[in-house]
Amino acid sequence: MKHLLFIVIFAPALFAVDLSGIWVSSSKQPDGHTDREVLVLKQTGNQLAGRVERAWGNLDIQQGTVDGNHFTITAKTTDGYSITCEGVLEESKLHVKVHEPHGTPFEMIAVHSDTDPFMLTSVIPPPALRDLPPNGLAKTPPMGWNSWNLFAGRIDDKTVRQMADAIVSSGMRDAGYIYLNIDDTWEGDRDANGVIHSNNKFPDMKALADYVHSKGLKFGIYSSPGPYTCAGYEGSYGHETQDARTYAEWGIDYLKYDWCSAARLYPNSAMRGVYQKMADELRATNRPIVYSLCQYGRDDVWTWGDKAGGNLWRTTGDIKDTYKRMMEIVDTQSQIAKYAGPGHWNDPDMLEIGNGGMSTDEYRTHMSLWAIFAAPLLAGNDVRGMTDDTRSILLNKEVIAVDQDPAGAEGHRADKSGDIEYYARRLNDGDMALVVVNRSDDSTTVKIPWIEMNVPVGSKVRDLWKHEDFPAGENQTFTIPAHGSLMFRMNATQIFGQTKTPR
Ligand code: GLA
Fold it and tell me: Could you tell me the distance, in angstroms and rounded to a whole number, from the CA of residue 318 to the centre of ligand 1?
């Protein structure tokens, strides 16, 4: 991302330097947005303390030394993300080379500053809390596609257009995947009037929205209530009214609003008001815009997300394309199932199906459980070239029908026995959807407790992955591959002998 000239001067300094102070690097990137990095340093002798600041948070300096005009720093977040910086002070500028755990090192030039662009001295107070009425949108969990999981910062106009074409030609649109959502990194800078512009990866947002709409799709975008997004792009702080109007003018139908740098300004207890503020601005445009709260499940958002105007709220930190992370998220969902319903959904994050980090059996488990949890189904893969397996998972209409069940009652883990777990969801027509997951690393044979569920022997059970009916049998056994699952739909009057408490 950084293309600045890095000059290391190895000549010993004639005098000791003092690097104490705030150092700000502000550089225009190739995509047209301005990237900022801040070093807050305190030098004692040849030791450096302080922090490296990024838009999304701080890294505390663990070790820092100065040698002549040369310095090295190791800095770490509270959850262990660690970087090293090395550089020199030359003509009052810090020339810094930053090594991240992944990717190529980048270079930056920081200048001394009296103020820290990430630390605002006066903060706009959030509005008084009200209970917002439903906006009438997202009667079933939103379905669509989002750019982040696969493309992150590499998303651009051309890719979005190709994705729109592929969502139609693959049959995904007709299966219900209607929202095409651009995540972080579309933002450019603001003009003199404070109006946000897209960066040069997106030359004309209105034209792009028109294209997406012409395909029978809806168009989503992303911002933050803080001054910066998680990737360090422009956020909506102090510009909520303007941004909501700009989105409406462009033809935006969905906003994901990501807490990120708002954490520097507000305590968690202010979140509800901050989210309510943007909800009010979106509603004031009179354009129906689905409102997605992204604050990683902090402050029990499920208890107030709908009152703040949210149609969905993230319940966890970010998903990764691994079975381990996907199941960590699963383990936190059952207890909060009761908070979801038509118009307001728990969001365990976007789908990783088709991105390559899990087996086909694991991706089937991912899809099955997201359907049980009435989760938004936002695909995150390259729809332009799906394998048959990926296609068969994302386009399984019987599983999608469970996710989109009009009653909107979220299911939960109803029972478990060793590595075998049972997830159940009551459906609108009185049927029950059941997912049986094998969490062990080996394939396992199970006997489904039909009797306990009041499914009479001989009654019809639908296998939602095999797309066939079979009669329930008393000593019937099923083999489930490692990390795989079964998904059934049948008329069952109770879940495991009335045990309806989430486990
Ligand atoms: C956060 C969100 C992700 C994604 C990125 C973009 O990490 O949780 O879903 O939007 O920001 O920077």
Answer: 7
